[in-house]
Write a structure and sequence with these properties.
single chain, alpha/beta, binds flavin-adenine dinucleotide, eight-stranded mixed sheet
């Protein structure tokens, strides 16, 4: 099948032949939905396969109490359609999961995308055929599809991680992972509940359920620097302003390093006196979401002494909120700086520990020995529970891609290709895997995810349109281009002190995983700069080829 020849005509949305499409997208999260829309708009025949039973990706699976954005809702939602932006009124500055799931379903229906989506369709294998330049994609139910382009929008936080605690399966009560929370209501009222893990999900669920459960025991391995989310409803005036300022907001988001609206500060921590710094930190504490990172002192992530002043301020805040000094000390991180781990944003987290029914177990001091049929045993003894909640995070970055059974040219398994960690070009493709793209995957983003992931989807779409228009069949990066990009990612990650390698950004939460930086710290401007150069150079850093070349090469051997 030549692209654009046996698929539907450009611009038409005719249904593709069963089992054979131009563009096969895996994943119905914010990235895959946009990819499906862009590919169809560009006239490709399309199909999207999703392991889950519905639309939303992160916002389909993470329906635990308290799950909500840390990005401002209107900066997270799509910006490609002014009409879409105008008709959807986000209710809160940081929307909770139900609203985001509703929004993504609205987008799917508004752009009539559902007819090209198959749910409960987990991809188990994807094999590249060099002779035809196509991918054969196998689904768990035994069905297979063939596609010229395979786009894995499988997410970086989509494979839940469970720590290897002895006897984990012995527990006879109810257990849930926050990243696989059931759609049916979970009744926690009056129950003895354990929450294991105090990353971004754990610290959201604790205050959300503390008031209804009989007892809540929080198992903390690593204390995190939590700061207030400062969420509020969006007022009618704010709604009007958002609409009036749409173009300006889009411009700001599209030129900001991290895809947020927050203004960058123009001073270093020691440009201010102690009193001025304290007053500034109070304003930061009261500011919304990620602005504590993006609008803080310029040297916060580069100067250890500057970072120390902010951490000391936060430690005092924790001591001021948590009444039991011993608990407060346990909640103050001692092993990493602010920004080294993904900073969680909270609503009433520290306050929850003042409730008589909430207690903290710091597992570095009193390690978990094993799970039993009735509860969790630490070195201090057994506590019994009705419900255990695993807020233990994800196999970040590469987890979903490496479980998809991807095999490129000559049967090379992606899992082998990336045995020492991912190597990518632009966080979009890897050499030896023609026509395979993974927007929103490793090396994709470090900030407001949909903005980066959308840039990548736009790049993928423009690239395959270019391939089609120029009569090529396949596209893959030059190995040298990939090497240079990956080296740049690793170089940026080595900067201190913000990127100590103890966080899941380096895969360090998963035993045995190579410690490689999985984000893109270079920021969107670098991505834009490179994309502009690539387009201007007629896709020079890529190898474009025709399958007829492969055939004649094979014949001449
Ligand atoms: C609780 C939580 C809160 C978050 N909050 C924010 C936030 O405020 N701001 C922010 O920028 N980011 C946030 N994130 C990160 C979030 O993951 C991204 O913002 C975004 O949702 C990623 O979208 P995606 O489409 O790339 O991936 P996902 O939303 O993860 O979607 C990937 C989809 O691919 C499917 N899939 C994977 N493998 C297969 C397979 N083999 N076969 C079929 N389907 C498959 C999965 O089932 C999933 O539905 C949050 C993450 C979590 C977990």
């Amino acid at each position: 099948m030549r692209p654009g020849s046996s698929g539907p005509e450009a611009g038409s949305n005719a249904r593709p032949l069963a089992g054979e499409v131009d563009v096969l997208v895996v994943g119905a999260g914010v990235t895959g939905i946009y990819q499906l829309h862009r590919a169809r708009e560009a006239g490709f025949s399309t199909l999207l396969l999703e392991a889950g039973g519905g639309v939303g990706g992160t916002w389909f699976w993470n329906r635990y109490p308290g799950a909500r954005f840390d990005s401002e809702s209107y900066t997270y939602g799509y910006l490609f359609s002014r009409e879409l932006f105008d008709e959807w009124e986000w209710q809160e500055h940081f929307a909770a999961q139900p609203e985001t799931e509703r929004y993504l379903n609205h987008v799917v229906d508004r752009f009539d995308l559902r007819r090209d989506m198959r749910f409960d369709a987990a991809v188990t294998a994807a094999d590249y055929d060099d002779a035809t330049g196509t991918w054969t994609v196998s689904v768990a139910d035994g069905s297979t599809y063939r596609a010229r382009y395979l786009v894995a929008a499988t997410g970086v936080l989509s494979v839940p991680f469970f720590p290897d605690i002895p006897g984990r399966d012995d527990f006879r009560g109810a257990s849930f992972h926050t990243g696989r929370w059931p759609a049916a209501p979970v009744d926690l009222a009056g129950k003895r509940v354990a929450v294991i893990g105090t990353g971004s999900s754990g610290v959201q669920i604790v205050p959300a359920i503390a008031g209804e459960v009989a007892s809540l025991t929080v198992y903390q391995r690593t204390a995190n620097w939590c700061t207030p989310l400062n969420n509020t409803p969006i007022t009618t005036d704010e709604q009007a302003r958002l609409r009036a300022d749409f173009e300006a907001m889009r411009e700001t988001l599209n030129t900001s390093a991290h895809g947020f609206l927050h203004d960058a500060h123009d001073r270093g921590a020691f440009d201010d006196s102690d009193d001025e710094r304290r007053a500034f930190y109070e304003r930061m504490w009261a500011s919304p979401g990620f602005s504590k990172l993006t609008s803080n002192y310029l040297d916060l992530l580069f100067d250890e002494a500057a970072n120390d002043t902010w951490c000391a301020f936060l430690a005092d805040k924790i001591r001021g909120i948590v009444r039991d000094p011993d608990v407060a000390e346990k909640l103050i991180p001692k092993d990493h700086r602010f920004g080294e781990h993904r900073p969680p944003f909270v609503t009433g987290y520290y306050e929850a520990f003042n409730n008589a029914n909430v207690s903290l177990v710091a597992t570095k001091q009193t390690p978990i020995v094993r799970m039993t049929e009735t509860g969790i045993e630490t070195t201090e003894g057994l506590r019994e529970f009705d419900v255990v909640i695993w807020a233990t995070g994800f196999d970040f970055g590469t987890g979903a891609l490496l479980r998809m059974g991807v095999r490129g040219r000559d049967g090379l398994a992606l899992a082998d290709h990336w045995a020492d960690g991912p190597s990518t070009y632009l966080g979009i493709q890897t050499a030896g895997f023609p026509n395979f793209f993974f927007p929103g995957g490793p090396h994709a983003a470090a900030g407001n995810n949909p903005r980066y992931n959308g840039d990548q989807v736009d790049f993928v779409t423009d690239a395959i349109v270019y391939v089609r228009e120029h009569g090529f069949d396949t596209i893959e990066p030059e190995p040298a281009a990939e090497e240079a990009w990956t080296a740049m990612i690793d170089r940026n990650a080595a900067r201190k002190p913000s990127f100590g390698s103890s966080s899941y950004y380096f895969g360090s939460n998963v035993p045995g995983k190579p410690r490689k930086y999985l984000l893109n710290a270079a920021g969107r401007p670098k991505l834009f700069e490179m994309i502009a150069e690539i387009v201007a150079s007629d896709y020079q850093p890529f190898i474009l080829s025709r399958t007829s070349d492969v055939e004649s090469e094979a014949a001449s051997r």
